[in-house]
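[scheduler] slot 2 assigned
[scheduler] job type: sequence-to-structure, two independent chains
[scheduler] chain ordering preserved from manifest
[runner] begin chain α
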Amino acid sequence: ARGLPEGFSIAYDVVPRDVAEDSRKVGQILGSMMPMMLILMSLLGSFLPAIDLTAGEKERGTMQTLLCAPVRSIEIISGKFLAVWIISLLTALGNVVSLSLTVSRMLPDVMVVDPWIFALTFALLVPVTLLFSALFLALAVFAKDFKDGQNALMPAYLPLSLLAGITALPVVELNPWTAYAPVLNIAVLIKALFVGEAPVDLLFTALLSSALYACLALLFAARVFERENVLLGGQESARAVLGLRRRAGGAPSAGFSLAAFAGVQVLFFYGSLLIARASVAVQLAVSQVGFFLAPTLALVAGFGYSPRATLGLRRPSVRGLAGALLLGASAWAAIGGTVLRWFPPPEPFVRELGELVLLGGQPYLVVLLLVAVTPAVCEELLFRGLVYAGLRRAGPAVAIGVSALLFGLAHGSVYRLLPTLSLGLVLGYARHRTGSVLPGALLHALNNGLAVSLLYFKPPSVQGIVEGELLPWSVTAAAAVVSLAGLLLLRSASPRAPEEGEHRGDGEPRGP
């Protein structure tokens, strides 16, 4: 209007330019639709077979014939579950192959996806199909005929479909909140694989949580198939099916212990996220006492199990305590000098862990209490108490090995898995030989306490070790000798007196 050139008032132009690589663009497109399609197809792959092998057999009158056959109920549920799972797995495999070929043929010059992405996608569908197969099989057995089975499974089918479908939204991605959500965790993990953003820690968390949910579904299915009244078309309350009744002493079953671990782990994970804004010291105290110790004690007391038989609250022998003392002083060096030498964690992880252990500069006694003493009590009562007590009927090797594996997985880091698993084996052996949780708690406290002391005081003689260097072979060998002496002392130890219904065959009390 005043003779100014056109566009004079525009200081600069904003020109949108997509700088993402073609592979990332393709991954974003495929990642928004692949998880939903594959999981929905896997759902359908187990939906109808589960109904046919349960409600369908009732309708045809063959369930009664099967129950009269000279086979155990566990064999029946195993056969039916494997049939449903294999069908669901083959459905998933067929869809992965079909979609990969379709993508490669549609726009071969643009949609270039590494074949390993599709292979990993299929591997991630394994725990999902396990969950679907076990859950649908357990729910369908309550139906009286095929039509009733479809109606019974729809309330479970629709929420699972919704969890898979929301991954198409751009805002839904792999993070600490979604990594523990059933079905959704695998869906967003597949999405992250196609985009190329799958952090190792969240990958480990998602796989761990998926395995937990699959195990819970399997335990539920096995529990349902133990009820012959349900298999024959009768009605039972959920309380009766799940065995939610108060006991008069004794120790829990393996199913109860594993279900308890899974529940505690989910509580620990989401509870830790809720208190993430608090200081590290508060987080550690609340997570140990509130998410490990309190649920353990509540489950034992609420279901009426014997605290002595379940938690191993027995007076150990002197040899047992001496062996735990030697192992607590040396196991950290023996394990660290061997396991970490072959599988060293990244340096940033070591530095962050060292800073985390010191709790942001808290006084030494506070750090020692929260990092050494509190986990020794809370974690041992859960893993060498409640979990071990339920597994010991399967034999000491199973009880020690599985409780150690769960102990390693519970720490939520792939880099800490082998060291904590190795320590868990030693702690489980102490529980087995002494019949008490106290030597393991002593061993655990000494192990953590020595690590805290080295990090806190940083003596010049071990400055390199504190900064992440590997232990010399001489130190590792000396620690191994001391650890061997501790193991020999534990081997010669035994419970002071067996409880009612126990025998000394393996040095471990047995519940009813």
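[runner] end chain α
[runner] begin chain β
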Amino acid sequence: MRRFLFLLLLPGPAAMAQAVDSAQTATIPPKSNFKFSVITELGFSMGSTSTPNMQAFFNQNNIERDSRADPFVHLNFGGRYKRLKMLLQTGYGFNYFPPNEKDARVARRTYASYSGAMLGYDVLNDRNRRLYLNVGVGGLNYDYAVINRTGQPVVFQNLPQYSQAGNIPSLQLRNTYWDINLELSQREKRKSSIASVLRIGYRRGWQASAWQSAAFQLLDAPQDRISQFYFQGGFYLSRNYKASR
């Protein structure tokens, strides 16, 4: 009887040892290492733009801006080769904040856009993330209208002949810039991946440009060199090729 029990229990330690050994050999899969990617990105940007000389003109004439923040939607397209990435950028401004209805004179942004290109290198990367340092160039376009509110009644049919002192239908600035930013993005995991991306950066005009108007020719207009801090967030779709294991 004792010999029978001994023979019955004998395979137990071997089975336990085999289970432990199986657990020890399980490993985390290696991080993805796709060599080349084609990227399309859609996102949202928020900028804080400084044009000090035009702002001084607004202050001298008691003109308030609708908002100091500049929201944009952006679309980027490009590619990545190993640790290098290049993107073509375009952004279009929209009026997210409600208009200023309390001040008598208001500068309202009627148009804003930017376009450019940037080149980046992932200075840090791990299994799930890439941290890029990006540099780029591009151009920013702004158009403002100054509204002078009065209680004066005007017949609609007379609007083409009506001229209100203090109204400025168009103030335009076109400025080329250089750009530097940090980007944190999710690492691509499959041949087709959707991932999040965040950027924080700074744009600065190469040189000052004179303000212009679509309504008339401006003489002795102030010049501004744009300074803009911005934040971007979005998602990109990547198609990835030539994975090496």
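[runner] end chain β
[qc] chain β: Helices lie at 2-9, 11-25, 52-60.
[scheduler] slot 2 released
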